[in-house]
Every structure is written in structure tokens, then in C-alpha cells.
């Protein structure tokens, strides 16, 4: 498969613009930036666009627009610039998520830090040091794949799946961090827990994060989590990114 | 007005057309597992697209009708009675206040639909009313639930039935997807030549397919980055067994997918009985896109195909209450 963007059918009413079939910073930025630009000029009959880790999905109603015309519109936007160095779109947010690390809230912190060649303290410092981009939302509603940690964090998933981590579990693998939307089994290592809910029917918006937003973790005491759970967005705060 | 669920089968849920437009936020559309059968229920009662019905997987339940209401039964055929009198499937009926609707086990197929005019009116969440298990939206119905109903737009419409269902035995149509070309030709050929059955390991997320031949090779593709899934995608899992993704699939997946089953053919997989033979054939992208129909188009076609349901006098326990001779019917007198 090529490294360049591929335009591929995905279902009778969809197509996929795939910037790469390997995860990386450039194709993720390209996907998020392309989607924002395409939305500005999307032709009538296009009903949904979305980004994954490295792709843009475009869904259309075939009784309102021909597939070939959607493809032409996508190619026109694609050819309008070099997307590999595109700036991320305006209107994004920086979220600060309080999370407790280690101990009962992060039972795998020591193991994960060890694999990354770090002390647990240094591991937490690095996880909280820089804002991580919402690369994509998936697996459960509103659940972000956050990246990228430095290369030292290119640690594999476990071969044995942990049968259940709780909602809010902060897990790491392959230079990414995920706060879990729901209790679920996982092969990723749990290093902490946050009171932030990726999908909260009582919050507005119910799904707070958007691809391209940034998330910075802030260390909190385990004893703070119960109180944070009563606060809007689990104590997370939001500011606009310039 | 409400419908009371006196006794719920093990997998009863409210379902509608699903939640569209949220793929990028991590939510697949969901909605009725057999979209065609759900739309048939709406067509029988003259209800608009998007109306919520009750989906019954395998077994129905017992429902108490609290006020006169029109109902329709579609999808997997189940044994149904209204106050003990058998009800015709794939048809609309009128239930009087206080009557008890009993729906038993499926005789054929998996997903049956009980549609109640003018639709289940529970509170929507993220733009839909359907239970979406992996997304944590809604819950299965339980004994004692009272389901609010929207008012019936045409309470006096005569009962209708579907005009004969043609059960296709043709191979299911599959269109190529983003990873199809990465499967070797011989794997695609073997896939088209194989005969599958629906594994008991099946639910609203997907159906695993069993077959007698060798497992299907996935090549070195298991390290691919996760990417969008389409409903109907056939993914080749690590053990080489195809798994067809249904309404409640995840939005992204890392397994390679050999193709996408067309929406019109997908209900046959969802509804396949044990041992029922399933085969696939590839069609072109153009054929697949040409075969696509909106809910509105499907509903219009279904409505044009309805025929009046003539009540069989032998089923009419209330026959003596009818004035059979002297008076013209109410539609004539306008009373």
C-alpha cells in the first residue's frame, strides 16, 4: 500500500480518504485539518464527515449526489494545498483533566514506567507534562485516543487482557493515553483514574471532546476523586486554544 | 398513553433508525438490527421514518394495552395472540383497551418487531431512543416498564398486511472496501466459494460465520492502524473466521475487512436461523451504490405494496356484536 492519500469506498454511501495506513502525527493532523476545510465547501448531499486516527470519512446520500461527484469534491480540496504540514483548525479547546496516578487508582503504573525506562514519579511527570492531542474518538462514545507521548512510551499492549478497568481508568500503550468512557476489558496498562466522563448524558455537551482538542492531565490526590465526580466534567476545565 | 410491558423476553429493546452523524464522536448508528423489518412495521401503520418500535430478539413478551391502539408485527415470525386469539404476522391489528398481547418464541428468524401507533415516545438521548449496548445508551426493557406512546396520526386507518415476502436464496452481495485489495485473489475466491452458517455467537454487534473449510488468511495485516468500520463490514479476525458487523458495531477497528455486505442484504445475516446456508458474491462499487435506498424510499415502496387485511370471521370472537345485516358500515354513514 502507498504512503500517499488513498480515496477508497467504504459502504455504498461512504468513502474514506486515508492519509496513511500507519499511525503518525502528520497523517492525523492532515485528517483533522482536511475535514475542517472540506466541511466549509462540502456539496449538497454530503450528510456526515468524521476523522479517525489517519483518515477522513465522508458519507453521502446516493440519491442526492453521485459518488463520482463526491470524489471530485474531495480531490479538489485535497489538491488545494499540502495537508501534511497543515495547521490544525481554529475553535479547538485545551482541557485540563485532574487524575490520580498510581496506587489503587493506577495499579499498572510501576510496570508501565519500568517498560518506558522511567521511575513512577518521572512517568507521571511526563504524562502530565505536555498537552496531548485528541487523535480520534472511538471504541465508546466520546472516548479519546490521546497522543503522542515521547518515543520512550512506545510500549506494547499486554498479551493478557485485563478483564475490567473502571470508567475513568487512564491507560497507556504505544505512545497514547486513553481515559476510559466505560468499564471495559483492555490490554492497555492502567496508570491512573480520572473523574472526567467522556460521555455524560447530564452534561452539555454530552460528549465534550472533539478530534483536534488538546488534553493535559493534572495530578490529583486519590482522596479528591469522589469530590471531583460531583463537579461538572469531573473537575476538568476548558480553555479556548488560539 | 402508555404500553405496559408485563413480562419482557430476555432481549427486548426500543429501537429506531439509530443515531446518525456521530461516527466521529465514537458512536455507530445502531438502530434496528433488521432495518427492513422495522420499516415494514412503520409502513403497515403509516408512521414516518424514525419512529421507535420494540425489537424482540428470539422471544417476545407480554404487553398490556391500556387504551385502544393499532399495532403491527413484523420481522422474525413469532407466535402472537391478542386476548388468546392468534394474530397474523406481517400485518396490522387493532388492540382494544385492557387487552393482553402475548408474543412467544420466534418460529423462524431472530429479530421480531412490535410497532405501536404512533410510536414509542421515550426520552431521546443523543438524537435517538434505541438501546445501544456497547455505547452505554439506554437499557433492555424490563418487566413492569411503562412505555409512553405518541398519539396515533390515523387511528381509524384499516388494518393492512404486507403482500407476500419473497425470501431470496441468492448469494449475499458484498462490495469492496478499503482493505479488500490487500486480500490475495485466492482468498477472495475461496470466500465466494464457501458456504457459511450463522454461529450461535451473534448479537446486535455482529455475527460470526462458521464454515467447514480452512480459516481465511489475513496476511500480515493485523498491525494496521484502526480505521472506520461500515455496518455490514466482514472482518477477518485473528482466527480466520469472518465476522459480519451489524447495527451496534464499534466505529473503528483494526482487523482487516474483506468487504461490506449491502444494506438490503444485511438483514438476512441478522435473521439467519441455525444451519441456514449463507453465501456471498462480490459486486462492483457502482452496483452497490446504485442499490442504496433511503429509509424514505424504502418506506414509500413498502406502503405501495400493502394490501387490506381481511379479518377471518373464524377469528372474530366479537362477531355477534357486529350489526351484520341492517345498517351500512360506519365508513358509509360517516358516523
UniProtKB/TrEMBL annotation, chain A:
Residues 5-209 form the Carboxyltransferase domain. It comes from the Bacteria. It holds the Pfam family CT_C_D. InterPro entries: CT_C_D, Cyclophilin-like_dom_sf, PxpB. Transmembrane segments: none annotated. Keywords: ATP-binding, Hydrolase, Nucleotide-binding. One of its GO terms (molecular function) is hydrolase activity. Gene3D superfamilies: 3.30.1360.40, Cyclophilin-like (2.40.100.10). This is KipI family sensor histidine kinase inhibitor.
From TrEMBL, chain B:
One of its GO terms (molecular function) is hydrolase activity. Keywords: ATP-binding, Hydrolase, Nucleotide-binding. The lineage of its organism: Bacteria, Pseudomonadati, Pseudomonadota, Alphaproteobacteria, Rhodobacterales. Signal peptide: none annotated. Coiled coil: none annotated. InterPro entries: CT_A_B, Cyclophilin-like_dom_sf, PxpC. This is Biotin-dependent carboxylase-like uncharacterized protein. Pfam families: CT_A_B. The keyword Phosphoprotein does not apply.
